[in-house]
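Hi Q.,

Before the meeting this afternoon, I wanted you to have the adenosine monophosphate prediction in hand. No need to reply - just skim if you have a minute. The sequence and ligand are here:
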Amino acid sequence: MKTVNDFDFNGKKALIRVDFNVPLNDDKEVTDATRIEAAKPTIHKILEDGGSCILMSHLGRPKNKEAEFSLKNVLKKASEVLGVSIKFTEECIGETAEEAAAQLGAGEILLLENLRYHPEETEGDRDFAQALSKLGDIYVNDAFGTAHRAHASTAIIADFFPENKCVGLLLASEIENLNKVLTDNKKPVTAVIGGAKVSSKITVLENILDKIDHLIIGGGMAFTFIKAQGGKIGSSMVEDDKQELALEILEKAKEKGVEVHLPVDAIIADSFSELATTDTADVNDIPEGWMGLDTGDKTNAIFKDVILKSQTILWNGPVGVFEMEPFATGTIHLGNTIAESTRNGAYSLVGGGDSVAAVKKFNLNKKVSYVSTGGGAMLEMLEGKTLPGIKAMQN
Ligand code: AMP
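Predicted structure with the ligand bound:
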């Protein structure tokens, strides 16, 4: 698979699929430019070569070309972040777009209007992909966040650039970093899987058992495992229909020699609220009407012990309701421990929407080895799937 470093873009027009699907506030201002920042190295490499960039992205899930989903909203912030005044075209295919692309000079950037204004984008329509392909000489995919989708601009379009296609530096580094966890890992390898539901993480849990030595399970999903083993979990979050599966995962882990670490104590609350009355309890003995919303001190100490002796750490999902201050301690403790282990030489990768939010909230971004930008895409890679966006770039 080629990367942008394998091409000289001098005099060339790069057609780049970026992920500028950024959050906007009520005034339609960008509130978090992380994804734009992440595309910067690729764009700069192309401009420095003497090429020009045509950026295509989606924004939200528009139904009828609603103005709130226009990529025009992103133009100002993107220009600021990239340090270049970006041009814009209100159509992403057809004459207007082709003309705007043709007029683009070296060192210039053109942003196309939201690809998802056309339903053909998500349908993976070939004609739409071909129409887009007319805009550039070399196709670059740098959108890890959508690499798990077989959309027109993320996968199908690659067919029209059999020789001239490559991944951008962000996508290349996402793949390289995930491989540091999945294939070229230093042992012992620990996965920390938290979050709300077992159901959304089952395939990940099953697939990573082959690759890890320790599995730490936290968050709401831990209670399905605890109940399945006979614990009294009070009103804690549970997926009753997943208890059987939880036991199967524990059995498989045992067969494969993976040590599973579940919480032993919890911060419990009498309601799902920041103002709730709280207490601590053994996870197997939570009173009726009370729910476990965070890990307790004993659990935090056990998790710390495992993480400090790990050489590779993957973290996906918070171990408590970190959005509420009284239940954030476990997740903060966990994040700090992963940071400490990283300082001691371990490799750590954090990914998945809520763990990334937690890492940012508690200022740990620079203290872990890598923060993945892709939620669904990262989970699918962990599930062992080949992502359509990556497959399309292989010859
Ligand atoms: P996920 O998107 O599956 O990673 O889940 C993240 C969400 O899980 C966060 O919003 C947390 O508030 C929530 N969560 C974590 N621990 C618990 C818990 N013990 N009970 C209920 N929700 C939880």
